[in-house]
Amino acid sequence: MTMFIKKFVMMAVMFVFFTFIPEVVQATSRDTIHKIDQFIEEQQNISKIPGLSLIIVDKSETVYQKSFGFADTETKTPVTSDTLFELGSTSKAFTGLAILQLEKQGLLKRSDDVRKYIPWLTLTFNGEEQVITIQQLLSHTSGIPSNSITRIPESTADNALELTVKTLLDQQLNRKPGSSFEYATINYDVLGLVIEQVSKQPFDRYIQQKILQPIGMNESFVGIHQVHSSKMASGYKIGLMKEQPYIPPVYRGNIPAGYVISNANDIARWLKLQLGNSSIYSISNHVIQESHTPDQTVEPFDTNTYYANGWAIVEKDKKPYIYHAGENPTFTSYFIMQPDEQIGVAILANMNTSFTTAIGQGVMDIWEGKTVQGQHVSSYQKLDKIVTIISAFVIVISIIFCYLLFKIAQRFYKKQREVATLNYKRIFLISVHIVIVALLMAAIFIVPNIVGLNWTFIKVWAPTSITVLLYSTIMASSLYLLLGLSLTVTKKNI
């Protein structure tokens, strides 16, 4: 009798488990997905991102893959899982993996001086030549200044990578190599040139053949010059408080650091490979794990956060996370993985905005059952709003100046004003107006250089409202000078 009762209870428990528990799990999953959908739609509306793709992998499965918005707002072409996006700096992980592959083949060592492969790359700190290792380039401890990005040349040439690296020759290092962290995107362009020298083939071809194809990322490209597809999303950036289409210059010499191009389908494969749950075994899992090993020879660059080989590694709530953000002038991406639970989230967007990172982190929080912390505030959006308001004010002032100039011209035509005889007072006033405008123009063009920037870089990377403000200020200054000169060199005809 007792055995019968035990068997009955066991059968009842099994019945409840297999009948009701899956439904509860499925309901929970549906609720989580609904929260994610709602979260993304809200954030997309706030951020003004035209289109994005989101991927979530859990263990070896793609559990969520969905696209939102438009690949092109003019044609209303929707984003799909095939839509191509520039990855930005999440491209660095491909370059880092390639270096580790070459090391495994015995073709280089991370402890090698970079000059073993690029003999002419001699860089100095405080006037003294320095040894920079491959590992220091990988972990951004080379001492190369972060603002070296402003000197990357526009180029579509086959030797663009070499041209980019050569810009370092007339730049001093910011710190002694190996002493501390300083993120400089060009570190990975130097690594790209090392890959070319070691593999004896162009960087883009090596990555295509040795990384992308073995993984099955057959819809991905290494640089915009490889893309011959109608599936490429149009790029946007914020300006005048809305998304603005923008075609930036081509920086072929910056491909290893920021210009791998991919879509949701292929990035799902990339995440699975990184988490060690892919059926793709052509790239050693040991090499993948090595690429996640942080450099702890220097202080963390953020709270509990160290840099690895194209990845940042952070410990939160006693759990490790592997992540990286990517930002190009008109595209952004964000990848984050929790290796213990084998969860990965990736988001691709066709606008330059910090919201992409915030959305990706928020999705990871929701998937893990956490509460998303606060509403993200984009510094680009705040700047754009302020600059847009100032631009509107400057344009209004310009219109007023135009009206006043018109009235002076009209009075001069009607003989109500005449040319005045120049005297010391009038010459002084003319000089004052010229000096005021000259000082303003000098400030406009010199101040960016003082903070390590230049207007070419600003116009490419900053909100389009900055360019509007620049030209409207130049216009207002010119009109102010014309108005001042008109009032000074003429007088009322009595």
From TrEMBL:
The keyword Transmembrane helix belongs to this UniProt entry's keyword annotation: yes
Lineage: Bacteria, Bacillati, Bacillota, Bacilli, Bacillales
Pfam families membership: Beta-lactamase (PF00144)
Subcellular location: Membrane
Segments forming domain Beta-lactamase-related: 36-354
GO molecular function: hydrolase activity
Transmembrane feature ranges: 386-406, 427-448, 468-489
Domain of life (superkingdom): Bacteria
Record-given protein name: Serine hydrolase domain-containing protein
Keywords in alphabetical order: Hydrolase, Membrane, Transmembrane, Transmembrane helix
Top-level enzyme category: hydrolase
EC number annotated for this UniProt entry: 3.1.1.103
Keyword Thylakoid: no
